Here is the input.
Amino acid sequence: MSSPRRSVEGRPLGASSSSNHSSPGSPALGGGGRFEFQSLLSSRTAAADPTSARLRASTESPVHRRGSFPVAAVGSSQATPNALPEDDRMDLNPSFLGIALRSLLAIDLWLSKKLGVCAGESSTWGSVRPLMKLLEISGHGIPWLLGTLYCLTRSDSQAGREVLMNLLFALLLDLLLVGLIKGLVRRRRPAHNQMDMFVTLSVDRYSFPSGHATRAAMVSRFILKHLVLAIPLRVLVIVWAFILGLSRVMLGRHNVTDVAFGFVLGYMQYSIVDHCWLSPHNAPFLFALWNQQ
Here is the structure.
């Protein structure tokens, strides 16, 4: 008689089949046996490598399932390195003032570039550039200082010396305030400017505010206040101050806001000089020193 077929393990096939039906929890085959085999394998792996077991348990947790939001699982120690500093964060809700200032700056740069028609010899009005540079010298601080000192030495009247002394004080105040503001703001001159100005200093590489505009506004108000001039000459002084400020933009030396703020600052400078007016009564040592010379 032929022997019955045996399985790979040497047992009859019928015995293997019957054992599957009789013991569903057996680890050999079947659904329950497969789960017990996996749990047994997991326990052996955990005993061999505790670190990998913890990582596997964390990945199988409900927090890391698809569609979940691991808010509670993220600790403060993990969120701190990912936080951006205050300077790198984007301001998604800018203020109205910030938008207005940026818009004003864009308009200022665009208008200044359009009006810079004498910025170079190849510009639209490049042939007028020498005349504009001559007008630039008329508003420079050094000619005004030297001219005031010369007139002060030649003056022989007390009233004339008093006016010239205060004009000298106003010019020195203008140089001090403009240089201080330029050093604080440090706004670069327009890109189309050519640094071929007459006698420049270290702060002259900055453009805000325009020193020519402040000086033109201050000197013109000073002259109109303390000199008796005919109406055509008074109009000529006002036109000179306006054209001088406009020439700063046409030459590409300054932006429009530099000149506008310069006019306002120069107007206020004369108010300071008028309030601190020097006279033989409040500054006798200056006039006595000058009389001795």
User: Anything to note?
Assistant: The two ends are 151 Å apart (CA to CA). DSSP finds twelve helices and no strands in the chain. The longest helix spans residues 158-185. The mean pLDDT is 75.
